[in-house]
Write a structure and sequence with these properties.
Its cofactor is pyridoxal 5'-phosphate. By secondary structure, the protein is of the alpha/beta class. It has two domains: about 190 residues, Rossmann fold (3-Layer(aba) Sandwich); about 100 residues, Rossmann fold, CATH 3.40.50. The chain is about 35% helix and about 15% strand. The protein contains eight helices and ten strands. A six-stranded mixed beta sheet has the order 1-2-10-7-8-9. A four-stranded parallel beta sheet has the order 5-4-3-6, with helices on both faces. Strand 3, helix 2 and strand 4 form a beta-alpha-beta unit. Helix 7 crosses helix 8. The longest helix is centred in the middle third of the chain and has 17 residues. It is globular. The chain starts with 14 loop residues before the first strand and ends in a 15-residue tail after the last strand. The structure holds 4'-deoxy-4'-aminopyridoxal-5'-phosphate.
Length: about 300
């Protein structure tokens, strides 16, 4: 395959049928988003946000992109911004993995840290302040921008449908951080076939199931406020997965499937196994593995 630009490799990731015991003889298929060039599902978003703003003439070659991010969106944005020679400032709560921050810097972005205890809300407030203070800046604001779910509605969901040709899908399971992935997928699959259950995954310490917000080690998912994208989206079930459960699946995937997945993927796998318990036998469950464990090796991902 001859390509001219690394961004050509965004999307069209493999969908793997996991060779593992699943309750009720069902099967779990996972979209391997680690195969995007920046290593995560958020390359799709970075590319979509920047090209959308460029086409709408909201940004020009002098614009500074500013965004609050847990990391992967920052990498995706830095990758996309490089194509247009834009400078990028990423506002990251200190707690997020050092590997992701190194990659953002390597791609040419600058990082501004906010205190871990202020969470993503602290990063959002800081990014808004920086945007007010910086001439010709653009804040894509993944947490509010309808282009976020749209990116997944346009790319990820239809890829899955075409990967599976005429296979009947019983449920789609996806984690929520900004909520963009789940909202885009849920909208697409509800339109495609209203019998498909759309199931969201969060870690303990996230508030979707009515729990109290607190720190967790599963990285990339978990919400401190209900994503605005969830307003018109059908949620059939919300699974709240503990760090222990998520990390157990991360280790299982490495040891038995040769899959080096991040903790949000582990949570998605744990929730998919739970989903199989209440679906009829021989169901097909589709989930998303957003990134790889390689960007969490400095954390205790393999020895919680
Ligand atoms: N997993 C990982 C590793 C992520 O970085 C993100 C994005 N924060 C997600 C899952 C959740 O995606 P979304 O923001 O679309 O809900």
């Amino acid at each position: 395959m001859l390509i001219k630009n690394i961004n050509e490799l965004i999307g069209q990731t493999p969908l793997i049928e996991l060779q593992m015991p699943v309750p009720n003889h069902s099967r779990i298929l996972a979209k391997l988003e680690m195969f995007n060039p920046g290593g995560s599902i958020k390359d799709r978003l970075g590319q979509y946000l920047i090209s959308d703003a460029w086409q709408r003439k909201i940004i020009n070659s002098e614009t500074t992109i500013i965004e609050p991010t847990a990391g992967n969106t920052g990498i995706g944005l830095a990758l996309a911004a490089q194509q247009y020679h834009l400078s990028t400032i990423l506002v990251v709560p200190e707690k997020f993995s050092v590997e992701k921050q190194q990659l953002m810097l390597a791609l040419g972005a600058s990082i501004v840290h906010t205190p871990s205890e202020k969470g993503i809300k602290g990063a959002i407030a800081k990014a808004k302040q920086l945007a007010r203070e910086t001439d010709n800046s653009y804040l894509p604001m993944q947490f509010e921008n309808p282009a976020n779910p749209e990116a997944y509605y346009q790319t990820l969901a239809p890829e899955i449908v075409s990967d599976l040709a005429n296979t009947k899908i019983s449920a789609v399971v996806a984690g929520a951080g900004s909520g963009g992935t789940f909202a885009g997928m849920a909208k697409y699959f509800n339109e495609y076939d209203s019998n498909i259950q759309t199931i969201v995954v969060e870690p303990e310490g996230s508030i979707l199931n009515g729990g109290k917000a607190h720190a967790h080690q599963t990285e990339g998912i978990g919400v401190e406020f209900i994503p605005p994208f969830f307003e018109n989206v059908r949620i059939d079930q919300t699974f709240t997965i503990s760090d222990q459960q998520a990390f157990q699946q991360v280790r299982y995937a490495a040891q038995h499937l040769g899959l080096l997945i991040g903790s949000s993927s582990g949570a998605a796998l744990a929730a998919s196994l739970e989903t199989a318990k209440f679906l009829p036998p021989y169901s097909t469950i589709v989930t998303v593995f957003p990134d790889s464990s390689e960007r969490y090796l400095s954390t205790n991902i393999y020895n919680l």
